[in-house]
Amino acid sequence: MSRSTSLNNQPVPRLGRTPSRFRMRGTPIIMIMLASMLPALLPLISQAPTLPPLGLLFLLSWRLLRHDMLPLWIGAPLGAVDDLMSGNPLGTAIFLWSAIMIAMEMLDDWLQWRSYWHDWLIAILACIVFLGGALLINRFSGSLASPMLILPQLFWSALLYPFVVRITVAMDRWRMMA
Amino acid sequence: MARPTSRRPGINRRAQYSLFASYVIAVAGAVIGLLTLILAKADPAGFAALRAAASEVTRPVSSGLSSMVSNIGSIDEHVVAYVNAGSQNAALRRQVDANRIQMIEARAIQQENVRLKKLLKLTETSTSEVATARLISSSSTAIRRMARISAGSAQGVRAGMPVRSPEGLIGRVLRAGPNSADILLLTDSQNIIPVRRASDNVQAISTGMDDGTLEIRPLNAGTSPFKPGDILVTTGTGGLYSPNIPVAVVVTLKGGTAIAVPLASPARVEIVMVEHPYDAGVPAPPAAEQDGQTGQNGAPQQPAGS
Fold first, then answer.
1. Is B7–A114 a contact, with Cβ atoms under 8 angstroms apart?
2. Which terminal CB of chain A, N or C, has fewer other CB atoms within 10 Å?
């Protein structure tokens, strides 16, 4: 057996071996960037905003599960990648993701404890801020899009978030395996 | 779940400073984002090189995937087609009979057209095709309606060129990278196209609604002359799109405007053609007539004598 397994059949790190530093620290960042990139990779020609903001959902789930993995300022560089991939005006996600990261830091200081449902609610609020803010910024730069257009995206984001958390937990476990 | 141990540094002076520094960097990041937005508003083409680089990164995967899965957007239509196959069959038969007669008439008109043009010795400005490409991805998470094609400046594609498919107009090129280009679809609210009704010459303006439909506003004041089923084609006004490209079909009337859907649905179209702008071959008017007018390239030209 090449990999040791514990009693409940879950893989555990092998004795005396540690994963590389890049794998330990880089996994969340690479994952969020890939999630931002995914809509640009899919051969899906949509006629309305349909896919949820996957990059933001992964940023939120990593931030809410493992706040120590992401520095406070990570919203700006990851937002720049998301802007280049998504087609929003450059600066949209740089500004909104930075603002969301700072707001969540303040929320952490204020909340005494949070449960799974709190996390979900926080994620939905952050999605409302990001999608609404992106709509306002697009309207400011000349688009005439109706606010109703973001409602399907919000709905899918809210439904997808628990699944994203599952993926994040699985990746967090993989990150620690040697 | 217990409250997560926050970044609260306690009395460690060094940790306090590093926390403060991370707040400063985060706020600076947000401010940089705002400044970038203002810059992008002032100069929309400013970050074209960055965007082109990003689209080159994703192009190999998305073009590979798009050649594997065609028709991903039309699965629902196939399903719906089976549901009402019987009544649709009868309706289509009637339509085919009607079309056959019209096609014979059209062929006769075409021959007459060729003959009359020869009489006039009209030199047709051939809207030569620049490149043929495949739609590989789109801005499916963003508000703006953009699609990406698998041809770029290496194939001769330049910003501003019209893009069409055999079924109808798709949009125009917004940015061209080395091997990929972003297209502003005609359903984007920043894409405004002068159109006319194909049957007569009622002129109108088509504006995208960002949700896959178009708003058709007639140029003449008063109630909308359009009815559901009207076919709209380009007029050639403005010099970008060549005339008589099919654009959309009116589906419903809402208030004083008509709502239309594009004839060439980007989800179903596989191959698109990038063409030269319609007036590219037409010589520019003399400089004296352009006094005070904005030229095609945006800069007003001064007459030589002033």
1. no
2. N
Contacts of A40 in chain B (CB under 8 A): 54-55, 58, 62, 137, 148
Q: What is the mean pLDDT of residues B199-213?
A: 89
Q: Which residues of A112-126 are buried (b: 16+ CB within 10 A; e: fewer)?
A: eebeeeebbebbeeb
Smallest CA–CA separation between B164 and chain A, in Å?
15
Mean pLDDT in each 10-residue stretch from start to end of chain A (178 residues)? 50 70 90 93 84 94 90 92 90 94 89 86 95 92 86 93 95 84
Q: Say if residue B28's pLDDT is above 60.
A: yes
ipTM over 0.90: no
- Categorise residue A60: left if φ over 0, alpha if ψ from -120 to 50, beta otherwise: alpha
Distance from CA of B265 to the nearest CA of A (A): 9
CATH code given to domain B132-278: 2.40.10.340
Nearest CA in chain B to A53: B141
* Tokens describing residue B143: 């508000």
Q: Which two tokens stand for residue B117?
A: 């043009």
**pTM for this prediction:** 0.80
Q: CB–CB of B187/B209 below 8 Å? A: yes
pLDDT of residue B73 exceeding 80 = no
Report the alpha-carbon distance of residue A74 to residue A91 in Å, rounded: 14
Chain A residue closest to B213 (CA)? A47
Q: Higher confidence at residue B285 or residue A35?
A: A35
List chain B domain ranges: 84-120, 132-278
Distance between CA atoms of residues A25 and A114, nearest Å: 25
Cβ-nearest to B25 among A39, A43, A73: A73
pLDDT of residue A18: 78
Residue A96 lies in a domain: yes
Task: Give the number of domains in chain A.
Answer: 1
Structural domain for A149, as ranges: 28-39+52-172
